[in-house]
User: What shape does this take?
Amino acid sequence: MYKTNVLHVIDTLGVGGAEKLLVGIVNGLEQFNHHVVYLNGSDELAKNLSPDCRLLNLHMRSKKDTLRCVLRLKQYIRENKIEIVHSHLVMATTIARLACSKKIPLFTTLHSLLGSRFFKKGNTWQRMVEKITYKKRHHVIAVSGNVLKDYDNAIGIKGSYTILPNFVENDFFANEPRRMSFNGTLRLVSVGNLKAPKNYSFLVEAFKELPKGIHLDIYGDGPLKEELQKEIDEHKLNIRLCGLKNNVHELLRQYDLFVMSSTVEGHPIALLEAMASGMPAIVSDIPVLKEATGEKALYFGLDNTKDFVKQITAIANHQVDLDVYARANLETVKAFASKERYMFLLKNLYAESLLSEKPEQRTQPVFRPALNLQTS
Assistant: This one.
């Protein structure tokens, strides 16, 4: 059976939300031949890719190396008869757009609030590059409505787009929501890279005011590890930096409450995974996290730590029924974040892009499932 050649382009294959999503797509859409090209950096997740997937590192050294990478990617597309290109993250998307011909459908997934991070008005150069390389024929996939709105405000949507929320691997889904069972000790958990947007410094400050019976484990790694560990040690806080783990789906079930204090997110997979595990969640009250949880979680402000401390203390004293939030979280994530749903919709998007071509332009048969995906 003939399989369409799909090329995925991304900055790195390190451990992150966009990278995990890409690996899931490659392993979940067996109807296609997958190729992955990454610019440089960590290849930690490469080992998780299907053995049938072809992999190429462009070894990009800096932005001055852009032209060489564009030409190499253009050559790869031609030599491997690539029929669909799917890009992730800003720099990889720029190179993919410059390398991809008009005849090849190009999808770009927006994973985060790029307008407020990369394309803000002060960053004139980056905004100009994005506006020039983004064409009406390109299809934008946004992981949330807030992400799409943010991009539209900064750059302007030119052509077709789809809002397609991130999915959760099947291993995470619990049959039943978690029930409150703590007595005297409340165990919190957070998952994410130790970087500024995750705002772990907020949790460190909050724990200086929390009772001793409350503990927090953070799974992840990143550039702020030493700084956070120093503050934790200095104040003897009940926080552990646990590093990266491959069995997060098993570890989550050991905790009572998931916490996320991010200042910026797109549609966080770590939060969705916790919700799928049947856990209650308390998250910062930013619009993206309210959208992801269907406004059915617990929320705290980021202006200061008082609100967070007050809510966690009340939870520890059993003044809040966490079972209600655990049930709501599981129901919410089951409705939109199953892997099967995501793959079905993305498969249809790919197929629809090929069907839009004129028959005489194709020399190979096309995989054509039923199309019922609504896009704009």
Q: What stands out?
A: The mean pLDDT is 91. The radius of gyration is 22 Å.
